[in-house]
């Protein structure tokens, strides 16, 4: 496999640096001046801008590299990992976006609190911070894999570069800046994926020679994946979309409830072609370079481009990193500030803005501590979605089955679901049961039996709460 000379590497680095400088200046120019702009962009964003932000987050660096990595071993069916986002955005737009927007909340914990109270709010916030923190660990690993391939540095050094640059973006810009810059980042990302598909197609000769030489499962709808795994991906991704903080935060930035719905439906359409492209890239890498590590299934094609094309693709991957890391870090910072800092200290707007930036700075660099311990990217990605799925289950029961939604049961359901899902994941999904299903059923079971227990004893906590206030 060819490698870049120092001069070619310098050209690529120069293109990336130039892109960072230009977009950093834009970020400063569009920076948020108030906490309202920092967290929800002043509720002034067009639906198409928010749609691109939603799509880019779920197909960020982690999904871009991770889907191709999975396709390297499982076949083009790995595209389901991104197609699941399309399905999730469709259902979110049809059934939840307008409700969440109308609530006036921009954190999922705030929305939960309206039905289950302060205790559930703090539990949901803690779960979401935990899940999103792990999301960013995966983002740093996948982004560093791409950067290290071209710059010829190790993963740790590449991850540090990722942390420094992306943190500058969101600490200065907030959601207002990040959302508009996403248009630029997404254009770069789509261009980069298109170049990768073109190079992979040229080197492999297209689908026909690959189907003749490779096992048949590489080109079936389920590949080496079980139906249960694909089902878990769809359920988990849809569930994550229904509850994830940065999704709620993004749709809250639109101008109306109809805009929130439209942004979700547009995002669903945008995900489909990218999903198929990423699956193809991973399969082509397996056909051409069967002995490489699967993590490099996408970056390996950089070494077969001239430095200009490689620079564009590298810049597109860097852009993906920025979108992924920035939106997730903003979500974590917003939860910490709104649910823990503000209620305790009741700061002035100026102090809140300053503390928000300092918290964001810490959030940007802390994942570096765990980068070297990250397992396979896609598995980590879906584990974090499983954690968020449990929150969605509780939220949906509160909306559509309020008879079964008790405050105490909700808290216990969330806590037990988080512990059980984490344990199941660390044990390697015993009995072939994906941790996603553990996250799905645990809170529902706890809420169901909690209702039976309190109802049969005449102690249903929601009723007691209402009676106390009535008296």
CATH architecture field: Up-down Bundle
Annotated CATH topology: Sodium/glucose cotransporter
> How many strands appear in the DSSP assignment?
0
Task: Indicate the proportion of strand residues.
Answer: under 5%
Determine the CATH superfamily: Sodium/glucose cotransporter
Specify the number of helices.
19
CATH classification class: Mainly Alpha
Structural class: mainly alpha
Number of domains: 1
Poorly predicted regions? 459-471
Shape: globular
Largest sheet: none
Strand-and-helix sequence, N→C? HHHHHHHHHHHHHHHHHHH
Query: Could you estimate the helical fraction of the residues in percent?
Result: over 70%
Q: Radius of gyration in whole Å, from Cα?
A: 22 Å
Question: What is the CA–CA distance across the termini?
Answer: 78 Å
On the 0-100 scale, what is the average pLDDT? 83
Task: For the structure shown, list the relevant keywords.
471 residues; single chain; mainly alpha; Sodium/glucose cotransporter
